[in-house]
Design brief:
alpha/beta, seven-stranded mixed beta sheet, 17 strands, 26% helix
Length: 338
Amino acid sequence: MVRAAVLPAVGAPLEITGIELPEPGTGQVRVRLAAAGVCHSDLSLSNGTMRVPVPAVLGHEGAGTVVSVGEGVGHVAPGDGVVLNWAPSCGNCHHCGIGEVWLCVNALAGAANIHARTADGTELHPGLNVAAFAQETVVAANCVLPAPDGVPLTDAALLGCAVLTGYGAVHHSARVRAGESVVVFGIGGVGLAVLQSARIAGATDYVIASATTPREIRGLTGGQGADVAIECVGRAATIRTAWESTRRGGRTTVVGIGGKDQEVTFNALEIFHWGRSLTGCVYGNSDPARDLPVLAGHIAAGRFDLSMMVTERIGLDGIPAAFDNMIVGKGGRALVVF
């Protein structure tokens, strides 16, 4: 038995309980978790904003050590440090074929699988494929990537979602160029990664915009507005404010995941007049296999500090309180350390 955070039903409190994991089958890997980040997407799964089969073991941002591997697994071996990849690309769908692996239509197919069982035999699903809120997990081989050398596994956990998303939002979606100004809405785990990534890209000004109006942002940018706004909240009002904060011809990237009730409206004339672009961003438009080595280089060179993103280190029992903090917008990334 291993301890895990189980979501028994949508809207129900998490239960910290023992679960029975199977041994890894063909093409599977068993991982002992070093740490797992508590992401807003986990909260969205628990409250039904995002839907996956339940009951489920939540957690999708993590890193750990390979315990054992099933037949046919050759890219990792027992004892290897790995980062979990919650959205592995299938390599066969239309989007994978054109290089948009972050939009793979089969990326979350594994969430419907039976992952583990409770002591009374209740079948559990892996929330977003990897079930990282547990001391150990069993995942498909394409859900693990070698951890970067020299990065502690507790810090490497953040690479699995927050860092890839924030880095990709800047470099792949917004395509921030040296000398541009960036305004960031929402300074949680992803927002902190966005700030560091914008600095790497060579952005000139950083405005933490939780209490800042578009007029104030224009005042800081010569009356023009920011070149780029990145929204990491997922609320209609924040998306609209981010749009209004960019200059004519500016770019707004929405990273935050909002509910269906969060409707944003624009009129046709303003779309024409302002010439701005508004884009969605899934997983930072990242390819983990391509981007992790690049990020490892930035970390080794001191350009990206993983530890500064962590505002709280907790155990499994602390996840419900971390959810409460996210609801009120408190703190950066809470990290479950095993």
